[in-house]
Amino acid sequence: MTAIPTVQGHCPACHRTTLILGADGYVTCAHLDCPNPTAASDLLAQQPDSATPSSKPPIPSGLPFDWPRIPIDDTDGTDAWQIIRIATRAGDQWALGEHGSYRQPGMSLSEITGGVIREALLHLLELGLIDIDGERMHGASGWPVRREQFLPAATPEGPTS
Ligand SMILES: [Zn+2]
C-alpha cells in the first residue's frame, strides 16, 4: 500500500496544511473539522472559466496582415460598457483640459487620439481595472495592427450569392 499523497499549500476553507490527493484524483482537505473539504478542488475547477490566460486568443507568432475581430459584448450595463464609459470620461477630461485639443488648437488627429487613449488607459490602470499581461506582451515577436474589420459583425454573414 502506498500512503495517500499530500498536497502542498493551505486548504482555502480551514487554512490548514492538510490537503491530500484523494483516490478520486481530487484535492481534498483531510482534517475532520474542515468546513469545506472540497474547497481546493472547487477552486481548481473554476480556473478554466475565470483564469484569463486560457480565455485569451493565441499569441501571434508573426505579423498577420489581418487580425480577426473578437466579439465582445459592450451593450448597456455590461462590464465592457462600463469600462468604456470610465475610460471615455477620462479621455474627455484630457481633451477639455489644459493640454487637450480644445485649448490647444492645431493638434493632429494622431496627437488627439494619443492624448485621449493615453489618459483613458492610465486611468483604468490607476483604478486597477485592467492589468498589463507582461508575459503575453513580451511573448510575441510583434503585434498586428491591422484588423479584419473595423467593427465585429453584428450578425453572422450569410452566403453572398
Ligand atoms: Zn480544510
Chemical compounds bound to the protein? zinc ion
Radius of gyration: 24 Å
Strand elements, count = 2
Unreliable segments (pLDDT under 50, ≥5 consecutive)? 48-53
Tally of individual helices? 5
Main sheet: strand order: 1-2
Strand and helix order: EEHHHHH
Give an overview of the whole structure.
The chain has 161 residues and is mainly alpha-helical. Among the domains are: 1-51, no CATH class; 79-137, no CATH class. 35% of the residues lie in helices and 4% in strands. The chain has five helices and two strands. It has helices at 39-50, 52-55, 79-96, 109-126, 134-137; strands at 19-21, 27-29. The chain has a two-stranded antiparallel sheet. A hairpin with a 5-residue loop joins strand 1 and strand 2 (27-29). Mean pLDDT is 83; it is low at 48-53. Zinc ion is lined by residues 11, 13-14, 16, 18, 29, 31, 34, 37.
Short synopsis of the structure:
This protein is mainly α. It has helices at 39-50, 52-55, 79-96, 109-126, 134-137, and strands spanning 19-21, 27-29.
How is the topology of this model organized?
Blueprint: E1 19-21, E2 27-29, H1 39-50, H2 52-55, H3 79-96, H4 109-126, H5 134-137
The structure holds zinc ion (ZN).
